[in-house]
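Two folds, back to back.
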Amino acid sequence: MGVNYRWAYPSFYTENTPFTLWANKYSTTVFRVVDSARLFARGYLGPNATSVGKVYSIDSKDPRSIANSLAPSDLCPNYSDNSGGVNATTWANIYLPPIVKRINALLHGLQFNSSDVNIFPYLCGFETQITGHRSPWCDIFTEEEILQYEYAQDIRYWYGTGLGTDLEKNMMLPFLTALVQRFVDGPNATYPSNSSSGSFQPNPLIATFTNDGQINQLAAAIGVFDNEPQLPATHIPRDRLFRASCISPMRGTIGFERLDCGRRGLFMRIKLNDAVYPVANCQDGPGRSCKLGDYQELVKEKMERFGDFEVACGVANSSVVPVGRERTTFLTEVGLPFEEVVVP
């Protein structure tokens, strides 16, 4: 991935110059998100990555990082990902029993239930990814059954962290607000630094790494699915735009491109895993992009409708959460007390 981005935007990086990335710390024992950032840096920077690269690992569970991390939901007591709730259960009770019946008819002395069979596609995906060879678990299902399982994942994310929720879909709005401001400021902007250098100039390529839950929260906030109807729990709708498999496969990416079109102005283009997804209510620019100022206003209106982040999360009267810090600053303010530096 790092190599591909270096090729895609060759003017964004000058050899052997400093490069900053950010990653969600996730936990004190599991480092897969930070390791993803480290490996990206090695691909993007090349042999000198360990000397010029710097990954800021952000502790999203530190109370000082309220709304200022890559997983702000970690500090929200009111946040609850129910994995799709009753809608997921309704669909599972429709599509799984026929599959269970078909599989059990092939067996002697062993019977599976719906919970067992629901895990089989995971085995297909993970074993294929881990071994580099197609897993035999993938051959257990018909194409129709795989598409039914795909839709189960759509419901899981839509009603767990996405546009089928009230609170959860807004969790990444502070991050999105700060990210859009970086695009408005432009690639040459500098900011005060907490370090001895006196200033910080982010790289033209802004690379951040987090978990699939946060990727889906961000997908809900960016505006590309705003006009989509709620997903039904009883059947698969035709031509639906939202597909979780297109947002967070084994490596999901959400990309934002700042397009400088000269006298026409600045525009924002959004990509999910390299495919362009037009913003639902703002796609009059080149390639169905959105004028950058209009997109900033769209995000601002979403944030205003959401209201006070600390109040919504349930920490407004907490003695451990700093008052008035419900905004994301880490993209322009390095050396924060809840960050630590990891070398690639």
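---
second:
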Amino acid sequence: MTQRADIVIIGSGIGGATTALALAPSGRSIVILERGPRLTDSDAARCDRAIFRDGVFRPVEEWLDGSGQGFNPGNYYYVGGNSKFFGAVMLRYRREDFEEMLHLGGVSPAWPISYDEMEPWYQKAEELFEVRGDARQDPTEPSRTGDYNFPPVPDEPTISTLRNQLVRAGVTPSSLPLAVDCEAWLARANTPWDAFPDTTGAKKDAENTALAKALAFANVTLISGAEVTRLGTGASGHVSFVEFTQKDTGTSDQVRLKWLEVGICILSAGAVNSAALLLRSANSDHPTGLANGSDNVGRHFMNHNCSAVLALHPWRKNTAVYQKTLQFNDFYLSGGPMNKPLGNVQLLGKISGEILSAQTGLPVWAARQIAARSVDWYAMSEDLPNRDSRVSLKGGRIVLDWKRTNWEAHQALVRKVKSVLRKAGSPVVISRPFDRQTPSHQCGTTRFGADPSNSVLDLYCRTHDHRNLFVVDAGFLPTSAAVNPALTIAAQALRVGDYINRKVLAA
């Protein structure tokens, strides 16, 4: 082995890029390995047909479900990770999400840390990702040490009218916290940003914010097109090297196997791929995989229960371009059967006829008529941790056996949403649940906790089994809550980076 890095970070999404930025001022040599390339601008980047019908940006990849059937999981592999396509929603978990909460489908357990411990890092993450919002509008908003530095993304006229109609319907709409420069986004083309790739820097995704700032340090290097295949351990049990493949530069398509000696290894490949890599790295000293002394790697997989809800008025057209500026949390903490929590409701990016046709199989002409008259919502409920919901390997292939929980609560949420939207003036409201081919915030496969017997990571995302191995992505989440996890991942990455600087590198 001829190359070495003090710190190797695997993955350049929200977790990996933000951790890299936190560690960059240490002066230690940091190498970020990303299996995908950088996204470049193209006509397809703003073409709904190319994205949603033709799947131009989706990888040719197949996982197996719990019954052994293959499916394309819809994850993305680019510099910046899945955040390149995210809806830019950066919400804090509610204070109650850190506490034990009883749902219709069971118990969402308490976190091993409190909201108050996470709050300063939420504040720093909002500043880093330039989140736009107004904390005064949502009554479920937890206490905070400061407001947003930027005002909310403005409602379009149709959505501004809808906001007033929702108030009359008895709910409390509030502005979504968004990490996007709306004017810069629309300067490239009049499209939504939700699920569209960012190629101009208008979305404050992992590449454009944390990674760009990290790479401004001379000691930080990004290697793209590097797919990590295995982590190796030495006699001490520490991770000693990272094995990866990379194509030769130039005209050759030959793939080379390469290695990096490592001082500290930070795994940020995403909840499914991080767990799979730990399992794939099994050796004679760790026959069930790395960090798996508790047999919890890959277990407790969670994926939000989600449905698209379309509110239609046959004589009223929706002129919105981006649409995605509102939410309401009236049923987040209560309001369901037996007054149980149900979840979050937020606008989707505006659905076009081409998107609706690609998702439903409707003829394009019919889908265009519906989309022109619809306001498009996203209902999201918590999926509860289940030990048997898991990631595993079969013949080297990823098996995702998702055992959905709390579905009764989600169905109740959708019924509530339909009732509200009808009261708000939409006589026709239809819904469609998302399937496993639409990743809805995959998390939980390397959860953190104080007890090594039932968790993979300690409270600072260091693996209990390997003192120089950390996992910083959505895998650490012990619960899914019912809001988008990007901000929580970023906040935890800043918290972990601070810990490594103070307690590991300074030791």
